[in-house]
Amino acid sequence: MIANMTALTITNIHKTYDNTPALRGVSFTVSKGETVVLLGPSGCGKSTLLEIIAGLTEPEQGTCAWNGESLMGVPAHKRGFGLMFQDYALFPHKNVRDNVAFGLKMAGWEAEKSKRRVAEVLELVGLPECGSRDVTTLSGGERQRVALARSLAPQPRLLMLDEPLGSLDRTLRERLMMELREILSQMGQTAIYVTHDQVEAFAVADRVVVLKAGTVAQTGTPQEIYQHPNSSFVARFLGLTNLLSGRARETLTGALVATDLGEWAVPQRVSGEVMVLLRPDQVHLAQESGHHLRGTLIKRSFSGNTYRVEVDVQGTALRFDFPASTPNIPQPGETIILSFNPQTALQVVGQLATF
Ligand code: ADP
Description:
The chain is an alpha+beta fold.
């Protein structure tokens, strides 16, 4: 990634359908060579945003600019952007080579140059020998790679991928996420990638824009967002569900937060009604002394690397993942004792007004 050379600037986009706002003041940027993932639940406005950037839909308010020049009024086919959708819409009656060459033909590429480019992108996506294969004979993963080759072939200055792995099974998706990231970064491709899947978002993103009901909830690298979710919405969306409401009182070194389950010192300086996150990765199984929470294990399930346990602590359900090698994990119905360092395990993720 080439840092800090802004390619795309999206400013204060508003879009309404039938009096219902789909986007409400969305702003973000994409740097040259960067992959930005738009992440959010279904209906939060991801596809509408892509359509606006592509030039297929007009916003009521706001602007899109490329290299500082406004794109407003520039028709879709003049923007030089590529789109790849979940249903790849490959032509079933054409072979792989002709599918990949289609956009080049439409753009008037000369035959010899087009042939070279097709060979180049098929090599890039790992299908150098497949040019004459009928697309109907390919596996789901191979079809996905052909679709990627087709969208990369015309060298779009921005590639937009809308849930490109959505229809594939989990194992294949996990493999292709890595490959996709590799290919995009190898090409220095500037890209926007849309998904509702946090794992996929973190695997492919340089930066993530989390959307909530047509607004930007948080922007940052995957690490920044996972380490410091800025609201209970983002925390929940990332699977960080151990959220406790409490009352904070500012101290010299941070705050004391009183919750139903106890009072702890946290490093953030806040006061008033707050939401605190108990990070599942910072909680350990304890024996007797020095414990912070005592509860009843409700459920435990084995998922290969970890045991996921659900614990009831005075009527609050909390979830943790322990490494599968952890000895003496209690059985359902038994008492479980948990220890954690409040300074690292507890994070204030929002004031009451922003829940
Ligand atoms: P996402 O891609 O995140 O699932 P969308 O952008 O498809 O979200 O939709 C955002 C909101 O706008 C939804 O409430 C959806 O129902 C609405 N919407 C999207 N497209 C249209 C349309 N063409 N007509 C009316 N409402 C639409």
